[in-house]
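Hey, can you fold this?
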Amino acid sequence: MKRILLVSWLFLLSVVLGLPEVKADVKMPLIFGNHMVLQQDAKIAIWGWADAGEHIEITFVGQNVKTTANADGTWQVKLKPIKTKKRGETLTITGKNKLVYSDVLVGDVWVASGQSNMEWGVKVRKEYADDIAHSEDSLLRLFFVPKNTSLQRLADIEIPQGTASPERAARWVLCTPEMLAKINGQGFSATAYYFARDMRAANGRPLGVIQSAWGGTRAEAWTSLSGLQQEPALAHYVAAYEKNVKDNPEILATYPQKQKEFDSAVREWDKTVGKEWNQAQKEWAVAVRAAQAAGKPAPPKPAPRAPRPPNPRKPDGGNNGPSNLFNAMISPLIPLSIKGVIWYQGEFNSGGSAKEYATLFSRMITDWREKWGIGNFPFVYVQLPNYEPVDQEPSVEGNGWRWVREGQSKALYLPNTAMAVTIDVGDPFDLHPVDKYDVGHRLALAARKLAYGEKIVGMGPLYKKMTVKGNKIILEFTNQGKKLMMGTSPYIPEGEQPQPKPTKLTGFGIAGADRKFVWADAIIEGNKVIVSSNEVAEPVAVRYGFSNSPRCNLYNEKGLPASPFRTDNWE
């Protein structure tokens, strides 16, 4: 009786004084739950919190592991590798209390991350409706990480107020038409779903996919502070983070009122200027297509007659504050045992910092691997598609998507990486192209080759080397399969006819020592491409598809497009 009274008195005292709650029971991260998938053929990390010195026992598939909580209340164990388990098993964690997770499978776990084209849900487009209807798969499990930001690394996933479908966030669900369409309000990631569907068909393993993505976000937001600090060229992001920390209290005090004023102003802008601008952009798209059909230059893109009201500065820097998304949406997943990562991002880094992406993206990949501590796990990513009207001049200088694509290509020097080329399935007038099937399919091909060692052609042709011979440049490639060929996009927009079979290789520009590129003639001879132009007698460089929206058609025999490239390094 005295002990009960003492505990009650301590609880009341903690409430009155605002002391932190005393940990009495074993607590697990939200990434653990019923219906989850654990990574097969790898040491399985199990971790959580308890009272300091509390004895913890973990039981799963015949393994029984014991540990003791550290002085700070943390604990972690690693189970021995387990083969595929397609029948649900029970994971039990016992301390002062007992936690029991049922229907736990053992298969492969992939993290799907990036910005809006990874977040873009299957419910958004009517084109996905039939696939949703036939999506039921009891061995495919989905997990949605809610959007959140933090200046410090979070130990667990937090569900912010206002999260879409909070009852479906941060918990494992079986892939059913209902769940697939309702997660996050717009449905689970279409890119990730098509990737998962192909992977399930390819190897039959149970599959868990964790969606942790946020539209309109930059790569530095997905990179940890210590990761950014390791690269001198990224010091400005470290400085921006430190400023966010310093200014946070002051901004926090005035933010609610400024956000209220912004919401009112932007609603008015949307009803007037925004509505007019949207209509102008639609008319512009029609005019561009007409100009291109007539062989004329595209008209200039319209601008709003008044700028959209700027967002008030977020207290912590918001979803593009350096490290904020890593801290809140990736860190809580670590050290979960995973097979690998699929990634689709880069659009938001295509402005003035586009050329920096080569450094930033490689650093981010390396940073994730360092933090996870499980080696160089497979990292498979999407190279940005075509966007904006087709360029009329070959390979002009300037920032933009071409430079982000080059940065993505350069990341292939990192071990255990692969890239899905999508230069043929974008939409010049839509930042969110409809065709997510081919994106997911190409990610799956790359993953099957990279992560599972299948003897398939997993990527499109990649530039290997060049040789100058007279007035010609001879190009060689990797990932060409048995042969190179001309091809067309597999995507046929609704209401349009399939593209005619090409008769001429396009997208190549050639230049001499004056560095002035002109459109080139290009032919395929065996597994090489021969490039030349009557205007360039002594060529020194070639660029292919090196523009924001190129018209290019080099493929390998498996119908995978060649990645845009340049043979020069001219600034």
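Oh, and this one too while you're at it.
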Amino acid sequence: MPDLSSRDPNWWRQAVIYQVYPRSFADADGDGLGDLKGLTQRLNHLAALGVDALWLSPFYPSELADGGYDVGDYRDVDPRLGTLDDFDAMVEEAHRLGLKVMVDIVPNHTSHQHVWFQEALRAGPGSAARDRYVFRDGHGANGELPPTDWQSVFGGSAWRRLPDGQWYLHLFTPEQPDLNWDNEEVRADFRTTLRFWSDRGVDGFRVDVAHALAKDLSEPLRDLGAPELSAEDALPHFAPGTHPFYDRDEVHEIYRDWRKILDAYIPPRMAVAEAWVPGARRARYARPDELGQAFNFEYLQAGWDAGELKQVISDSLATARAAGASATWVLSNHDVVRHASRLMLPPGTDPDAWLLSDGTAPVVDESAGLRRARAATLLMLALPGSSYVYQGEELGLPEVADLPAEVLQDPIWEQTGHTSKGRDGCRVPLPWTTSGPSYGFGAGAAWLPQPASFASYAVEAQDGVEGSTLELYRRALRLRRKLLEGEELTWVADTPPGVLAFARGDGWRCVANLSDTAIALPPGEVRLSSAPIEDGRIGPDTTVWLA
């Protein structure tokens, strides 16, 4: 069995990494917001679960204009979440428990409260301070029109005008001005940041919006072609690597530079790219001389369909193999509807419209959603490569789709003119106990309200309970360590319609029945099943591991 707790430089290739959204994990001081001390107190949960590492979403000083991804200082801790000493204590305890620690790094933009941006506002047009960001004069007789038709990911123009007449670029919220990565001072500062956290014992980095750092800022700036065209929609309209600000070829120079820093540590620090680009282009970010790994969003976006999933899995493995990387798999994260709900939505359902209906159009059967989520989890954990698990999925948590408008925090709600509720439904704080004002999350109420149904999903309600989702995850992760061998799979031929079956390593097999009809259980010893086996048959929405 692979020794993932050692100094093995390749520990990440088949690891299970648990994403912690710190404001929603555990609240130690009772202010309703999760914090580092709360996380440290609950690290034994992750150790007992059997994951290999935790990935910590942003914990830096932030006004929370975008859930912490608006960073005011890249080398400090938000005082509401703790101190650098608290961070060090968390890393020490994680390492004592055999857990690696990854942190989020957000290099595309800063907060508008960052000292650099505040300096740029004071310095005025043409200054060296403004050159760290993307400032431009506008179009029109008096510069009253934005410099380009570029749109924000969250809706509306990606440009904001200042009282002095200049405009600055923000691909996300106006509180997140984009950095100018042509500026050597910007590059040098992030080298310092990588070393700062690596020196504190961090084992790896998740790179936010990794595909957007390099931009074509030569004059005149190029339009995308239509004001309503999103950046993603515009990608096919440009030759690969030539989009004005997404997935440009020059971005790879940055990551080759970073890899030299990461490789200077023993063991080398790992990194994974959040790059929303097609598979062949994504492989470039995962090359050994760059970040080494990239998130596979095709798998997350695939429907509950055997044919579609088989193709995505095969393509993803081939893409990773071509890059010299291992594949990555993820079902949920802090940006998408939790898969216990999402996988039950009929094909073609608009998740934004579903959330706007408070989850009533259509209504999702929670028990059926949980059954499907458990099957999806066992399928994912059987695949070669790294699995990224989002906090709360080990409890089977569904999306909280009916959050009232008055409690929403995600900037998407306001920036889209209330046409998208945003991502708060997957960020509702975790339930640890079956009672209390926030089900054990903290001493008082949580920053987002938890539904009463969370009591039945709490850790306390599932701990030690045979057949619970929590125990399924624990057993699966224990078995996975014993069964891991190699990074390949072999598809089993002649499977019934709607069924995925493959063999790993020394012949252990995974059979996932995604159809609506029970199938005969193949020969072999059942090591684990996402749902009970009845009369020698695998029911619908069930995955089985066979020895």
